[in-house]
Design goal:
The chain has one helix and ten strands. The protein has one domain (7-17, 26-155): Lipocalin (Beta Barrel). A hairpin with a 7-residue loop joins strand 4 and strand 5. A ten-stranded antiparallel barrel has the order 1-2-3-4-5-6-7-8-9-10. It is an all-beta fold.
């Protein structure tokens, strides 16, 4: 049997913010989810940065092990380049939760929820405790830990 390569094309919105105290700026977004075999998939998405304009990204998720463990990779024209960010995590049903690190202590968390005709993705930046010591004293207060950077929601177009 040939590998499953069905694609689901979706449209919706993606909200973005750089810092946890910034408001989320919502813009138009699209996504395509393509199954890769029985357990893997790609999520290609577009979004609009409020200053830098149109952006694109992709998350690749590998097969699920017996314990729900998955591997993945992230590439995004604004968040993650020029190389791929390796991710690891868990899949439970239609929900995948992935995490990776950058700049030694900083983190990135990606949660994807898939449905037959919709998908959501929330990307969180994880601020390490050590970063708080270097924050400007007159700047807004900040906490260590994750905060939502991107919140996307997509739906399939209704059939005509």
């Amino acid at each position: 049997m040939a590998p499953d390569t069905r694609a689901l094309d979706l449209t919706g919105t993606c909200a973005f913010r750089l810092m946890p105290h910034d408001p989320l700026a919502e813009g138009p977004s699209s996504a395509a989810v393509t199954a890769v075999g029985e357990q893997g998939f790609t999520l290609h998405y577009t979004w609009v940065h409020p200053t830098d304009g149109a952006q694109r990204g992709v998350v690749l998720v590998g097969g699920t092990g017996d314990d729900g463990a998955v591997e993945g990779a992230l590439f995004d024209t604004w968040h993650q380049q020029p190389g791929l960010m390796p991710l690891s995590g868990r899949r439970s049903g239609d929900r995948v939760e992935l995490a990776g690190t950058y700049m030694e202590e900083w983190g990135w968390m990606v949660a994807i929820e898939l449905a037959d005709d919709a998908a959501t993705m929330t990307m969180c930046n994880v601020v390490p405790e050590s970063a708080l010591a270097t924050a400007p004293p007159d700047g807004p207060s900040m906490s260590a830990g994750p905060y939502d950077v991107m919140v996307a929601s997509w739906q399939a177009s209704p059939s005509t």
